[in-house]
Model the fold of this input.
Amino acid sequence: MREKKESLWKNCWKNRTLIWRLTKNDFKKRYAGSYLGMVWAMIQPIITVVVYWFVFEKGLSAGAVKAREGVDIPYVLWLTSGLVPWFYFSEALSNGTNALLEYNYLVKKVVFDIDILPIVKVLSAIFIHVFFVCFMLVLNMCYGRFPDLYTLQIIYYSFCMLLFVLAVCYLTSALVVFFMDLSQIVAIFLQVGVWMTPIMWQLERLNDKPVIQKIFKLNPMYYIVSGYRDALFDKVYFWEHPWLTLYFWILLIVLMFVGTKVFKKLKVHFADVL
Done:
């Protein structure tokens, strides 16, 4: 019994080759059978960026003008820097939550280590994320904004986001097996979350409401999105926000502990339910 509890992370390290193989297969499988294949994975987010840009940049409504207030760089750059990490978070969380349901035939195999399935889903979303980070950097260069030392922080913030979504996925993927409606709740959460992070508008607009502003900052994705913008536009290192960084890592450690504990506690029942 002690050996089983030994460590989820040891199991994952031991199966690292299998994780990489399953990650590549998962990514390919998602677009198999369609003529354009993985191109669809790039087209949909780009169209989303274009639609939001058109609504907020070209929109003539008072709401659209207000949303752009305080943004002193081309709005399309500012918008893309927020949507790129959100696209990854949204895809990884949605797919990671349903990892055990999708791979239920592997869950039922006695010899298969199911600890790796949430990791496979979270990692498979990285391929498209890398493409969009490159797209974002090229878009910035088209406006005369070239990468520098600050830009390297995107690697740090992407790593933070990967760990954060993995921690959440260990929890949600375990619970959704027993409570199927959780998938729908996660989808609604993601729809609301894109506005609560915030991505389309600046949090500085709430400077006159400091309490509400602080509540928004408790959202871990605020740390990631503002980090991307710090790296690209504001030229601020992550350690220049010591309290926000400390809060994020404490929350991440707690979430990872809770998520993996719940997963390990419930995994003996997965095969029976699925």
